[in-house]
Amino acid sequence: xxxxxxxxTINHDKNNPxxxxxxxxxxxxxxxxxxxxxxxxxSEIAKKLQIEEPGEYALKIR
Length: 62
Ligand SMILES: [Zn+2]
Description:
Blueprint: E1 2-4, E2 10-11, E3 27-28, E4 31-37, H1 44-49, E5 55-61
Antiparallel strand pairs: 1-2, 1-3, 4-5
The structure holds zinc ion.
Zinc ion binds at residues 4, 6-7, 9, 19, 21-22, 24.
């Protein structure tokens, strides 16, 4: 799986060169940690990472 450098979304479809959320092609396998955001409104991690939509995100992207 790959993480999007723009929005941090985890993309599972390795045949798709684009991020499923923001359509960016700037994806990388060089990330660590995965976080599931269920409710961005109440999640401290979501606020810290500036995530506004529920989903699966990379914690650290190099
Ligand atoms: Zn993205």
